[in-house]
Each structure stands twice: as C-alpha cells, then as structure tokens.
Amino acid sequence: MKELIEHQRHFFRSHKTKDISFRLQQLKRLKRVLKSNEALLYEAIYADFKKSEFDTFATELGLVYHDIDDALRNLHKWSRKQHVKTNLVNFPAKSYVLPQPLGVALVIGAWNYPYLLSLGPVVAAMAAGCTIVLKPSEIPSNTSAAIKKVISEHFPTEYFTVVEGGIPETTALLKEKFDKIFFTGSTFVGKIIYKAAAEQLTPVTLELGGKSPAFVAEDCHLKMAVKRLVWGKFLNAGQTCVSPDYILVHRSIEQRFLALAKAEIEQENLRVENGNYVQIINDRNVERLEKMIDPEKIYYGGDVDRENRIISPTILSKVSWDDTVMQEEIFGPIMPVLVYDSLDEAVDRVNELSKPLSCYVFTKSAKTKKKVLNEILFGGGGVNENVVHLANPHLPFGGVGNSGMGSYHGEAGFRAFSHYKSIIEKTTLFELPLKYYPHTNGKLWWIKQFFKF
C-alpha cells in the first residue's frame, strides 16, 4: 500500500493532473471505458444481486455519465481563478482564490449502488485534479472484480488504481497518509474512517445514512404521494441510503394510504423475475431484516425467501416508535407506517432521533412544508417527491451529524477534492505606510477609519 501511494504522490507532484486538458482527457476516457464495458458491468451486478440492466443504467451508470458530462461542461469555470473584493485596509491590491487539487485521494465505495457510489466520487476527484485510489465494496464481489478489471486495463496505477479486498485491505489503506478520504457507507464504519483520518489530519467526506422520515399530510395529493413513496421505498429492494425509512401519515388518511400502497405494490408487480426488483445483498442482511418484521403488524407482504435472498415488499401498520423496526436504519423493503395527529408532536419526535440523511413531506400546504423544512435538520430531501434530489448535480448531496459530513455532486464534488488557496497580490509602485513603525496615534486614527469600510 505504501509503495502504491508513494507512486501516486510522485505522479501528483509532477503537476500533470493540474493541467485542465489532462483532467478533461481522463474524464472522457472514463466515460468511453465504461460505455465499452457496459455488458461486463451489467453481467457482474446481476450476478451479485439480480439488478437488471434497466435499473443499473437508470440508477447507476446513467448518473455517472451525467456527472462526467456535467464536469466536462463546467470544469473550466469551476477551476478558474476567482477574483474577490479587496478591503480598504489592504489597498492597493487585488485578491483572488485559486482552486487546487488536494493530492492523493482515497475513495471507499458502498455495496448498494456499487458503480454509482464508487465512480461518482471518482469523477469529482478527477475533475479536481487528484490521483485516486478506489476501494470498492467487497460485498458485491463480481461488481468489485469488474471495476478492477475495467480500470486496471485502461488507467495507469500511478494515476488511478483499484484496490480490492475487505477489512484487512481497508485497514492497511487507512494506515497510510492520504490528502483526502471520501467514504460512503454506514455511520458505524464512518466513525472508524473518521478516527483513522484524524490520526493523519486528513480531510474527509462521509456519506452515511440514517432513518429518513416521510410526512404524508392530510391535504396531500394522496394517490400521487403513494405512487412516489412506493417507488422510492422499494427501489433496489429498499437498499438505498435516501430511501424513505418510515412513513408518518396523518391519522385521518391512514386507511386510505395503506389501501392505496397495497394496490400500488401489486400494480407495479415488484418481482426479481421481471427485472423490477432485486435480491437482498447477502444472508446476513436477510436475517437482520427478517427480525424487523413483526408478524402481528404485517399489513401486506412479509414473505421471506432465505434461499434466494428475497424479501417481498412489506407494509407494517400500527407501528410505534418503540418497535424493533424503528431502532435502526432499515435498508430493506419494509415500510413502517406510523400515524400522527399533531404535526408539532411528529416533528418533535423526529427531532429526538439522529439527524437524518433525507426528509420528505407530501402536502399542498405552504405552512406544513415550511415547518418540516425549517424545523428538522437533515441532509437533503423533497416536497411531494422522494429520492430523486440526488440525481440533480446542481444540488449538493450530503448528510449532517450522524448522517454524514460534507457534500458532493456537480461543483460541490469538485470542491470536496479541492483546496481554495487565498491570494492577495500587491503593487510595488506605492503603498500607504500606516502599518509600519513607528506606531503613532495619527496612524491609529487612520487605521480605525479604514476598518469601517
């Protein structure tokens, strides 16, 4: 690991990656390489958890291509010198900010969207001008191997390399000195990453998770709310960090919501065989999710096929805050429905939990929208929609508190891998001599006047 990182550091110090034309060339190469190997990538992810070509393109590769195209269009603008005002105290001078790449970056990807959550940060690191060590999740082993093969055959290791493996390899990487660490995964592992980074004073971006609520108010467009929530909840069999973890429904519409949700699931025909659904990633997660399903609270679904790692879309009703399903992030196809009478009380209850990665509110009321958006601190979210905010590169994506630190996508991703160097540049033709010795009362009076502007 040490030798690998030193080779990258040596290459970075050659200053080749600071050249904008080099960065554009590498971004174009990445897109070209991924497109020419799509068949391999589709085959690998299907082998891991039966994810269809449609879902893989729509929720992973398509978004990576979109990120690349966004970077290609905007890189010159993002990387240019940014002139700022100079205050009167520093007159005469000009001031500007220079974006520069941080250096050698470690990107640790997640298993649930193994292409998007590995290669999305890589695009940002490339755009910023870093060299990259990518550690994809070992859990989807076929996908990890496919990423390794595709990258190693088309990029020099001193610029961009993939390290496969599990905890031992990740631990070995974290012992080395990086200039930036970008991690996507659980809050538990995020704390380990953060602690290791602190030993080296390495800046980090942590994209974590949490229990993301969705409020369904009595005045919402209920049929549309249900349609969108069923899609968002059961996309990727619920294995989505911004999935609505639980639904808070106003008591007056609870039964209508449940009936519509059941009908929507049946209409969507969410099955692995037709490409509309995926497996749970491994046996451990099947067992974990099965324990969350209280048989007495199943409104719909609840079927568990351990052999094929499939849990049917499941709705739980009459759920309380003390139930097992409410004690940790679900990360699976289980939709707990809680009812509320008072929005004030519901918001207060959500605020007693850790800050969520996402929050959604379905309502026609400006007052309800304002209350949820203003009074709950969360990473990002939507009004009358869920999940799709992460697909907009103009919206910084990230969490807050236990759900993450820092953000990326679009220019926010470029910033995550860059240092903004502040420069003041003075003329040598003349200068106001107020700062120099001797310090007199007259000079002090003038300095005080300048500080007012």
Number of β-strand runs: 18
CATH architecture of the largest domain: 3-Layer(aba) Sandwich
Outline type: globular
The overall pLDDT, averaged over residues, is 97
Q: Number of DSSP helices?
A: 15
Find the CATH topology of the largest domain. Answer: Aldehyde Dehydrogenase, Chain A, domain 1
Strand content: 15-25%
Name the structural class.
Answer: alpha/beta
- Unreliable spans: none
Description of the molecule:
The protein has 453 residues and is an alpha/beta fold. It has two domains: 2-208 and 402-420, Aldehyde Dehydrogenase, Chain A, domain 1; 213-392, Aldehyde Dehydrogenase, Chain A, domain 2. It contains 15 helices and 18 strands. The protein has helices spanning 2-12, 20-36, 38-49, 53-79, 116-128, 141-152, 167-174, 187-200, 222-234, 254-268, 283-292, 343-351, 366-375, 410-416, 441-450; strands at residues 82-84, 93-101, 104-108, 131-135, 160-162, 180-184, 204-207, 213-216, 246-250, 298-300, 304-305, 310-311, 314-316, 334-340, 358-362, 380-383, 404-405, 418-426. A seven-stranded mixed sheet has the order 10-13-14-9-8-15-16, sandwiched between helices. A six-stranded mixed sheet has the order 5-4-3-6-7-17, with helices on both faces. α3 (38-49) runs antiparallel to α6, α4 (53-79) packs parallel to α5 (116-128) and α9 (222-234) packs across α10. The longest helix is centred in the N-terminal third of the chain and has 27 residues, at 53-79. The chain is globular. The N and C termini lie far apart (53 Å). The model has no long low-confidence stretch (mean pLDDT 97).
